[in-house]
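Input structure tokens:
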């Protein structure tokens, strides 16, 4: 039996993972830990349905409710940031990292120390701490499998190939809800408009990041960190149908494209059963009915996050942690109604400048403490920049 844990079980990726585990033949998986945030009722339901050993909420004040919901079930409960890392220490063969944001960093590192497989949906880990994460995996004989759909697609296109023969990696972007909006309209976009993704059903934060293309920006950096290719080998292309997830170009001119429906259960299922391919209940594409696939160049004026991602990739070091931390703070400010949609990119750009002066963005990351320091500094710089913008 494969022992599995899910960090961020109650989120969009987590629920899709729970769905796949629930469909597996009895005796295939043994569920160790499930974690969530404030959605304690759902976490308890999942823990009972999957007979988990332990359910953990990230928030200590939510523990009494979790305890009450699981009373008499024999399922252990815990709460808080340290409890998340303790849960990641429990022996598991396969761990899904699907907490949203930099909060997923420490549990992911803890899970790697067991030497199993980390299925990585939490792209922020790679953006903030890519070299450290890969080194930790190597030191403990652990394997990281990408779950972001584009990176799973690249990973699949690379199966059996030599990375040295790769000329370029192209990840696709749906373009989000504002793909064809003029700049003036994007500037006035509301929260409700930003979360309404045309193709994918995802958590609120990544949906807004898709609308601003900060999600694609994070994914460009994620591509560089995970596959170790140089920034000038990485491209993003807008593909409104969201059926081609990524393409890998080789030195003989061949392009290997990965095509599939916009359903995260494909990438999750691939990581779950790797190196085999298991049955995954996603829709089968009818190419004749689809008829055509469209591709256009992304617009870095209307979507400045893409330009910033290029700068971050070129700089390396602490730039990713600062970029992500500032982006998370700016996103909170937008969700809170404090800033406009395009202010997010302005704030991140300013935070990169300020932090460069204070800590030097290009300085290598020596430890996770450097990541935390860069993250905190970035959030403060973002708040300072927002105060200036809204004064
Ligand atoms: P979500 O918001 O739906 O779920 C997030 C999960 O993390 C929930 O279980 C929540 O309770 C938990 N969580 C939130 N804040 C936390 C904190 N401070 N500490 C601990 N746990 C916390 O998010 P999602 O859309 O499932 O995305 C999860 C991760 O997967 C993100 O990194 C995202 O970028 C990535 N991802 C998501 C998709 C998708 O289709 N949703 C696709 C690719 C990558
Ligand atoms: Mg993606």
């Amino acid at each position: 039996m494969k022992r599995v844990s899910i960090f961020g079980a109650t989120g969009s990726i987590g629920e899709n993972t729970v769905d796949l585990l629930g469909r597996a033949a009895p005796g295939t998986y043994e569920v160790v830990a499930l974690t969530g945030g404030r959605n304690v009722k759902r976490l308890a339901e999942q823990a009972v349905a999957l007979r988990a050993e332990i359910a953990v909420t990230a928030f200590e004040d939510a523990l009494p409710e979790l305890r009450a919901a699981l009373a008499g079930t024999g399922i252990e409960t815990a709460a808080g940031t340290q409890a998340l890392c303790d849960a990641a220490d429990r022996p598991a063969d396969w761990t899904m990292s699907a907490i949203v944001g930099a909060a997923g960093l420490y549990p992911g590192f803890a899970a790697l120390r067991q030497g199993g497989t980390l299925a990585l949906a939490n792209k922020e880990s790679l953006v903030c701490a890519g070299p450290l994460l890969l080194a930790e995996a190597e030191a403990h004989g652990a394997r990281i499998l990408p779950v972001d759909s584009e990176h799973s697609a690249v990973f699949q296109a690379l199966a059996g190939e030599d990375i040295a023969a790769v000329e370029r990696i192209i990840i696709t972007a749906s373009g989000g809800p504002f793909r064809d909006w003029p700049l003036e309209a994007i500037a006035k976009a509301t929260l409700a408009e930003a979360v309404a993704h045309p193709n994918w059903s995802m958590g609120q934060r990544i949906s807004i990041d898709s609308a601003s293309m900060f999600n694609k920006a994070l994914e460009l950096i994620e591509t560089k960190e995970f596959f170790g290719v140089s920034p000038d080998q990485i491209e993003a292309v807008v593909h409104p149908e969201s059926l081609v997830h990524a393409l890998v170009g080789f030195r003989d001119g061949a392009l290997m494209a990965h095509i599939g429906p916009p359903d995260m259960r494909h990438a999750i299922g691939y990581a779950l059963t790797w190196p085999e391919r298991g049955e995954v209940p996603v829709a089968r594409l009818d190419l004749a009915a689809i008829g055509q696939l469209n591709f256009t160049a992304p617009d870095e004026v209307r979507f400045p996050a893409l330009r910033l991602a290029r700068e971050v990739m070129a700089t390396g070091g602490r730039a990713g942690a600062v970029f992500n931390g500032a982006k998370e703070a700016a996103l909170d400010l937008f969700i809170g109604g404090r800033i406009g949609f395009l202010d997010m990119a302005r704030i991140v750009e300013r935070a990169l400048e300020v932090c460069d002066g204070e800590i030097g963005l290009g300085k290598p990351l020596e430890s996770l403490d450097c990541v935390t320091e860069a993250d905190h500094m970035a959030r403060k710089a973002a708040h300072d920049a927002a105060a200036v913008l809204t004064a």
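Residues 2-146 form a domain with the Rossmann fold fold (CATH 3.40.50.720). The mean pLDDT is 97.
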